[in-house]
Amino acid sequence: MPRASTKSTASPATAAAAENGAAATDKGSSIESIAQDIATAIVEKRLPPGTWLREEALGRVYSVSRTKIRAALLMLSKDKLIEMIPDKGAFVCQPTVQEAREVFAVRRILESEVVRLFIASARPRDYQVLEQHIKFERTALRQTTTTGTVREKVLGDFHVALAEATGNKTLAELVRELVARSSLIAMLYHSSNDPHCSSDEHSDFLRICRKGDVEGAVLCMIDHLERIEASLELGTEKPDRQLDLVKALLA
Amino acid sequence: MPRASTKSTASPATAAAAENGAAATDKGSSIESIAQDIATAIVEKRLPPGTWLREEALGRVYSVSRTKIRAALLMLSKDKLIEMIPDKGAFVCQPTVQEAREVFAVRRILESEVVRLFIASARPRDYQVLEQHIKFERTALRQTTTTGTVREKVLGDFHVALAEATGNKTLAELVRELVARSSLIAMLYHSSNDPHCSSDEHSDFLRICRKGDVEGAVLCMIDHLERIEASLELGTEKPDRQLDLVKALLA
DNA sequence: GCGGCATAAATTGTATACAGTTTGGCGTAC
DNA sequence: GTACGCCAAACTGTATACAATTTATGCCGC
Question: Is B129 near strand C, with its CB below 7 A from some atom of it?
Fold first, then answer.
């Protein structure tokens, strides 16, 4: 699998696990690893949008005090994956339609240039890594054990890997954040996008890159992103926002 | 002045003030306002790159406990304005040459599109706001009381205001972060850029926008950003990094 | 039975206490 | 005189305690 992580922490951050005090993981989890773990849980929809993340419960899960949990939540709130409402708590974000459109607009801007930079600097090794990634997508999509929500993350990772291949870490970091937010958005506005289709588009895209067709590749990427956005139900504001009641009350 | 802030906190975060326990500001400073205040102090060079930000000292300055200070520092570290080194402390960032180049590269990508979006959607009111901003730049630059370091911030604010005028808050937020990092970079690699020159370029830029010359305006913006980057001494890695010794040792 | 108020439980916000690590200084050995 | 090592002061990392706020419960009046 691409980007084999050296991180040691397991992934126990299910809503259920947060409730009962079961899964006690390794004691010395760092703030970063806790934040990363929760972020993964959000992107994989184990913590759906609107979920209330109680600090003490999370503390039990990771066997740490609320201090570290709060620090982790603060980082996630900067990533716009959770929202911290004063005296109320932390909740998994429910991006608005406008915010969703904005995120995809920025992604088109950044990733268009990612494509240009990638083709300009790509070495055989970079293509290998991405081909490998697509292969991984395929196997992940084939497996019946793979939940439909994990697919989003796997597909998003391709875009991150592409950005990382440009060598511009700052750029890659921004793409990573936007891709994570996109996953959240895709779940909120239940994307009707066919994962296999996306994977095929990734494959087609790489083929065009290999030909050195820069503008073709750029258009392919923009098309791809627009297709993803179009597959969302952005026409209707989500009605099932239980938590918006709470937020509305304090306004 | 454009963007009149409703924030109430003063700006006592000088390195000196952090040392002696003098300036006790209003007790109930929120985490956000503390972070914002320190960020402003960094961008205005009252807290130069490499400065060690001791938690207890900052706590005395803002009359809060280390808990809130740590939260504020954590936010700033996400903005890449400070760096938190485990068991060592928080230090004002000293971006590398590569990072500096990356930041400007991303700015060119984002702000090119900012220009297109701005011209496409700009109303008379938007132009007024920006003209006002340039007028403010001029008076700020004329005043002898204005330190050379404040000028960087004022000039950077123009780019933020432009991004905000596009209506895409997500985009504007990213530009804001990158502009702040740019200010830090400009100070580290003592920019030889003439502030008056930059202000003139802002003025010229707006004129081109008014004509509706989209591509001309885009090129003007890219030129402007490249001129800023070119005025930096990015050829030589900064030798006066006292703290890099520390960082090198723990590697 | 239903609405409203008082009270109690639960949860977040903040400060403080304590443990672990680093840093600087002093003293001693060589 | 210099280098090494030990000890103390200072600082960060984390947990815990307490205050403030919110939310749930139950009681009473109607």
Answer: no
CA–CA gap between residue B36 and residue B41 (Å, rounded): 9
Q: What type of residue sits at position B136?
A: F
Of B78, B106, B168, the CB nearest to A170: B106
Q: What is the mean pLDDT of residues B123-146?
A: 88
Give whole-number Cα distances, A183 to A159, A221, B247, in Å. 12, 17, 36
In whole angstroms, C1 C1' to A49 CA is 38
Mean pLDDT of A123-148: 86
> pLDDT at residue B95 above 50?
yes
Cα separation, B248 vs B227, in Å, equals: 32
Q: What pLDDT is attached to residue B250? A: 42
Backbone φ/ψ region at A61: left (φ over 0), alpha (ψ -120 to 50), beta: alpha
Give me the sheet containing B82-85, strands edge to edge. B52-53, B89-92, B82-85
CB contact under 8 A, B105 and A168: yes
Please tell me what DSSP assigns to residue A194: -
Cα–Cα distances in Å, from A49 out to A46, A192, A207? 10, 18, 36
Question: Which is more confident, B172 or B142?
Answer: B172
Structure confidence by residue, pLDDT tens digits, A39-54: 999 998 899 999 999 9
Indicate the residue of A74, A105, A174 with minimum beta-carbon distance to B71.
A74
pTM over 0.90: no
- The crossing angle, in degrees rounded to 10, of helices B169-188 and B97-121 is 140
- Pairing of the two strands B89-92 and A82-85: unpaired
Separation CA A82–CA A53 (nearest Å): 9
pLDDT (mean) for A139-143:
85
pLDDT digits (tens, 9 = 90+) for B29-64: 899 999 999 999 999 889 999 999 999 999 999 999
| Residue whose structure tokens are 């490249």 | B226
Chain A nearest-CA distance from B113, in A, is 7
